[in-house]
Amino acid sequence: MAHPKIALIGGGQIGGTLAHMVGLKELGDVVLFDIVGGLPQGKCLDIIQGGAIEGYNTQYKGTNSYADIAGADVVIVTAGVPRKPGMSRDDLLQINLKVMSAVGEGIKNYAPDAFVICITNPLDAMVWALRTFADHPPHKIVGMAGVLDSARFRHFLATEFRVSVEDVSAFVLGGHGDTMVPMPRFSTVAGIPLPELIKMGWITEERLGSIIQRTRDGGAEIVGLLKTGSAFYAPASSAIEMAEAYLKDEKRVLPVAAYVNGPYGIKDLYVGVPVVIGEGGVERIVELNLLPEEKAALEKSADSVKTLIDACKQLDPRLA
Length: 320
Ligand code: APR
What we know:
The chain is an alpha/beta fold. The chain contains ten helices and 14 strands. The protein has a six-stranded parallel β-sheet with strand order 3-2-1-4-5-6. A three-stranded antiparallel β-sheet has the order 7-10-11. Pfam families: Ldh_1_C, Ldh_1_N.
C-alpha cells in the first residue's frame, strides 16, 4: 500500500525534528517545504542517509515549491519565526500572519483534503487565520498546543511525585499562552485526581500552584535558556501524536486548539479543548461540565484569543 504523504511546511528546528520523527516512526513519506533554498533539501538528504542505519524506508523530498505537497494526507505547519528571549508569543503576530497567508494559499491549491496541524505561534490566532486563508473545513484543521502543555504539566508532576510520567495524565484547556487553564480536577496519577492527592498529603495546594505556573511559563523557560529560538523536540512529538491519531484512526482524546462554535458558549474561535481525533479529523468536541471558576478561566483565555484574532482582522482585511 502507498505510504501516507506528510507535508511539513517550515524546515527549521521543529520541521526538521518532525521530518526525522516521521522516518523513525515510519508514519509516511515526507515532503519538507521551506522558502529558504537548500535548507529543506539539505535536511532531507541528511535524514534519509540516517535511514540506512535506522532502517526506515521513508521517501524524503526537500522543496521550495508548493506543487510538491500535492495530495498530502497530513500537513504540519511550522513556517514563521519563533520567539527570542523577552518576546511573548503575541509579539510574533504581524510577521507570522503574513506567513499564514502564503501557507494557506499553498494548502488551498494543493492539499485541500489534508488534515492540517498548525504549530506556528501565536497558535490559536494563527490557526484561525490559516483556516480562513486556506478555506479549509474546520474539522480538518487544528492547532497543536494542549498536547504540549499537558506533556509539560505531566513531566513536572511526575518529577514532583517521583512516579513514572506514564502514570500521570494531565488536562489543560484554553489558549496556548499565559491564560492557559490547567485542570487539576481532571489531572490524575493512576486515576487519582490532584485534589485527592492534596488530601492524601502528596502535595500542597501552594506547591501545585507553582507547578501550574511553571507549566504556563514552560515555553518561556526554554526560550530563556536557548536564547536563539524556542522549544522544538516536545512540540514535534506532540504534533506527531496528533498526526498518528488521524492517520491510524486511533480515536485519541487529545487537547488541541480546535474550531469551537457553540460548545462552552464560545463562538467562532480556535481554543484548546479536548477532542476525539480519528480518520474524520476532529470527530467530536468533548464538552466538560466546568465549575464556575474553571468556566471563568476558560472565558478569560478565550477573550485573549479573541483580542489576537481581532488584531489579525485589523492587519488583513480579508479576515474581517
Ligand atoms: N513559508 C515557508 N517557510 C517559512 C516561511 C514561509 N513563508 N517563512 C519562514 N519560514 C521558515 C523559515 O525559513 C524557517 O526554516 O520557517 C522555519 C521556522 O523555523 P525556526 O525558525 O527554526 O522555528 P521553529 O523553532 O521551527 O518554530 C516554528 O513554531 O512553536 C512555533 O513559535 C514557534 O512560530 C514558531 C514556529
